[in-house]
């Protein structure tokens, strides 16, 4: 299976008995159905995201990507808790792709991010 962003090979890795794929080129992460949620719940799993976030931001601009499993166009998603995190989702196999640095950021939900989310929710409810 090849990376949907840079076309390098996705290699299978395991953390706490949960398999995931990491791109050997850009270090993006591919998660099959529920692997992201399983890994999010495991303390220390942010260390699977070894990629440079600057490289990830460069690849994040690449929007027209296809699922490495299904070959259909993936949808860009925004994390419901951290609006600055954009990842790709396959509506057929339910796989997700995170650019380098995004999963690590997802695991670090800071006080400032919580406050920003709260303000955005309040603004939306006022309008």
Automatic annotation (TrEMBL):
InterPro entries found in the cross-reference section: TF_Znf
Domain Transcription factor zinc-finger: 2-37, 66-108
Origin superkingdom: Bacteria
Protein name in the entry: Zf-TFIIB domain-containing protein
């Amino acid at each position: 299976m090849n990376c949907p962003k840079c076309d390098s090979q996705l290699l299978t890795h395991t953390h706490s008995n949960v398999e995931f794929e990491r791109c050997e080129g850009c270090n993006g992460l591919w998660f099959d159905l529920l692997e992201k949620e399983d890994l999010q719940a495991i303390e220390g799993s942010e260390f699977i995201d070894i990629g440079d976030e600057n490289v990830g931001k460069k690849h994040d601009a690449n929007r027209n990507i296809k699922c490495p499993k299904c070959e259909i166009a993936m949808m860009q998603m925004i994390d419901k808790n951290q609006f600055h995190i954009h990842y790709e989702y396959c509506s057929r196999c339910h796989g997700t792709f995170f650019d380098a640095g995004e999963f690590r950021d997802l695991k670090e939900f800071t006080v400032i991010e919580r406050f920003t989310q709260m303000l955005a929710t309040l603004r939306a409810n006022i309008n």
